[in-house]
Amino acid sequence: MSFLAQVLLAQLVAISVVVFVLKKVLDNILIETALKQLEWSRRGEQGPLTDAVTLTTHKNLRASSRARIVQYLKKHLKITADPVFQVDPKIWGGMIIQCGFRHIDFSLRDRLRQARSW
Asked: In 2-116, which ranges are continuous DSSP H helix?
């Protein structure tokens, strides 16, 4: 393998690692923002959240991530039932929350669609 091929391969590996890390960080930010948006949408409402909560992500979340999300919902929104987790690979990252009439879309697909409309 020539020196130029080795350099190109090393650059490709480096770029792949950077993209992977950035996507993971962005995914976590979008999930946290979606949860904060749900909390914000309930400002002024009293009592526990009795509506069913459905959380859609692009892949199955680890048990620790699910537990952290459920703990957040129980602490901040006082949900009465465990949320339902769904997977839709078409959203590419982030989270969509459906809770009663509230539809909170902080998916990567939606963020990119909004960025294109600017």
From this structure: 3-41, 63-72, 108-116
Q: Which amino acid is at 41?
A: S
Take residue 16 and report the two structure tokens written for it.
């792949």
Sign of CA dihedral 27, 88, 104, 63: negative
Instruction: Identify whether the C-beta of residue 30 lies closer than 8 Å to the C-beta of residue 95.
Output: yes
- pLDDT at residue 71, rounded to an integer: 94
Best CA proximity match to 81, nearest among 105, 99, 102? 99
- Say what the pTM is: 0.82
- Look at the chain and count its residues: 118
Radius of gyration of the chain (CA): 18
Q: Over the stretch 9-21, which tens digit does the pLDDT of each residue have?
A: 999 999 999 989 8
